[in-house]
Design goal:
Strand content: 15-25%
Shape: elongated
Strand order of the largest sheet: 2-7-6-5-4
Oligomer: single chain
């Protein structure tokens, strides 16, 4: 949209002019207006303004003329065109030296050239340039909207936009997944942006502040621009435009490109909103199906297979169930004070992103998956194609945790993995995974990944909690120990569990608890005295260990 001094100099009326200084700046100096100024300059000259003068009032006084030119340069003018004649017969050497030093454009005009003709031609050129620019924007806007509304892929949209503006373009969603890119996109640009996006997610998560919608990114081909796509204060994704050369925009270029790219972001935002609406309907159908599968509420095998086929699921594969419980969702939302959406809106998006990532990670491992979010739990049925199902599932969970941490750094999840897996055992596998999750959460072990196969002792302990005589025995053993620990603020129960876990190895236990060996021995003797149990006696050790397990699983003591 901007006219440069090179464009102005190419006008017919400037053919007889002479460029005295700043010829190398003709292409980089923009002209937004043209005016006739005589001394004094004061605040009458705007930035990027071509100034015409006859030097009347200062031309015969070299000091005064020098000050006049200096003031024009300091005003940020594009150039100064001086009509040589009765007032300025020749530009003084001091003035030329000043212009050379400041890399400023000085032009000598023939006295016979009328300033009104210059004004007319330059202003006409500026208006024509603006008209063409707005026509170009309108053409691009219409064509992009046509692409979006006719259901074309984002690859075609990116390629069409790249061709229209002569730059490399690709489009990504808010999770950093590239959804469309132009042909011949530089691999270095894509890799550099992926790293940049990962750093951004690690630092701020998926809901970073919208304070700056423009982000510069340097890569081997020059500079690229990341523009945030958003609607109603909510980030939808990003458009990345590359190939801007060795330096970022000037202020004038920034305004022009911002106006142009905003039309592109609007069009792509419409695509994301349409896509979101379509996905919502599909997600609801899938959620309902997987939840019915989990509860075993299908009345016939035919009905189940028919619905699974329509949703693109394959039930003739062995699946294992994984259940995850997100923790601290309300606190996580409240910590992002810049958000303009409600908690319910944010939670809905959070759930959908969890489901999307669960499916995406499975796909990256060449595994089928079925996912739903019900009763505040993420339920995943994951295909098993490895002889060690537990190892494969843990690898999957590790990758999914890493990905979810990028999107939501403040959210933690507790996990439960079923023992049973195979064909058509969805309900039983879910119940095992949920049981493992509940036991893991009962231990207050956030980030825990509990496997049903490893919870045998915990399940036995929970059944033993129903035996009143056993509760009385355990309570009598632990009452004094718990009271002493509370009064002295020394967790003797933790000391015992660590000692027992290390099979009575005093040195290893002392290192783990960061205690001096003598301090640990004192604590162990105190435990024996308070519980009347000898740590060297197998029966006493069994009673103390069982009592501790019962208390950790929620047993109430006499002192509670």
């Amino acid at each position: 949209m901007s006219v440069t001094m090179m464009d102005v100099q190419s006008l017919e009326i400037f053919k007889g002019s002479t460029i005295r200084t700043g010829a190398n700046k003709l292409q980089s100096r923009y002209v937004n207006w043209v005016s006739v100024i005589e001394t004094p300059v004061e605040s009458f000259v705007r930035e990027n303004e071509l100034v015409l003068t006859t030097g009347i009032g200062c031309g015969h006084d070299q000091e005064l003329f020098y000050s006049f030119v200096d003031d024009v340069i300091k005003s940020g003018a594009s150039a100064l065109a001086i009509a040589l004649g009765p007032f300025v017969e020749a530009i003084p050497h001091r003035v030329i030296d000043l212009a050379l030093k400041e890399e400023f454009i000085l032009i000598e005009l023939n006295w016979s050239v009328r300033f009104s003709d210059i004004l007319e031609q330059v202003l006409e050129q500026i208006h024509e340039e603006k008209r063409q620019y707005f026509e170009k924007i309108e053409t691009i806007r219409k064509s992009l909207l046509h692409c979006i509304l006719s259901g074309q892929s984002l690859d075609l949209v990116a390629n069409h936009f790249a061709t229209s503006i002569g730059c490399e373009v690709f489009i990504a969603d808010k999770r950093g997944v590239i959804r469309g890119k132009c042909k011949d996109l530089a691999e270095d640009l894509q890799d550099r942006w992926t790293s940049f996006m990962q750093e951004q997610l690690e630092e701020d998560g998926i809901y970073h502040s919208l304070g700056n919608t423009f982000e510069w990114l340097q890569y081997s081909g020059g500079y690229a621009l990341q523009l945030t796509i958003h609607s109603a204060g909510n980030i939808q994704g990003y458009i990345i435009v590359g190939g801007f050369g060795a330096e970022p925009f000037t202020e004038e270029e920034h305004k022009e490109w911002l106006m142009l790219l905003e039309h592109a972001t609007t069009a792509v935002a419409i695509h994301f909103l349409h896509e979101q609406a379509a996905k919502e309907a599909e997600w609801r159908l899938r959620d309902d199906f997987v939840w019915e599968l989990t509860r075993g509420s299908f009345h016939s095998q035919e009905s189940m297979l028919s619905r699974s086929k329509s949703l693109g699921y394959q039930l003739n594969l062995p699946y294992i169930c994984v259940v995850a419980k997100p923790e601290h969702l309300k606190q996580s939302f409240q910590s992002m004070t810049h958000l303009t959406i409600t908690f319910d809106h944010w939670l809905h998006e959070c759930i959908r992103h969890m489901e999307e990532e669960a499916e995406s990670v499975a796909k990256s491992m060449a595994l089928k998956s079925m996912v739903t979010f019900q009763q505040e739990e993420l339920i995943i049925f994951l295909e098993v194609n490895h002889h060690n199902a537990n190892q494969q599932t843990r690898t999957y969970i590790t990758k999914l945790i890493r990905r979810l941490h990028y999107l939501y750094p403040t959210i933690t999840l507790t996990w439960g993995i079923a023992k049973q897996y195979g064909y058509s055992c969805f309900t039983a596998s879910y119940q095992e995974a949920k049981r493992a999750l509940e036991i893991g959460r009962k231990k207050n072990d956030q980030h825990a990944i509990s496997t049903f196969a490893d919870t045998t002792a915990d399940r036995i302990t929970e059944n033993l909690l129903k035996n009143e005589e056993l509760i009385d025995i355990a309570s009598s053993v632990l009452d004094s120990l718990l009271r002493y620990s509370e009064e002295r603020q020394i967790n003797l129960l933790h000391t015992f569990t660590t000692y027992h876990h290390n099979r009575g190895n005093v040195s290893q236990t002392a290192r783990e608890l960061n205690l001096h060996r003598q301090s640990l021995l004192y604590r162990l003797r105190k435990i024996e005295a308070l519980t009347n149990c000898s740590l060297d006696d197998a029966d006493d050790l069994f009673i103390l260990d069982l009592s501790t397990r019962l208390w950790l699983n929620g047993m109430k003591t006499h002192s509670d």
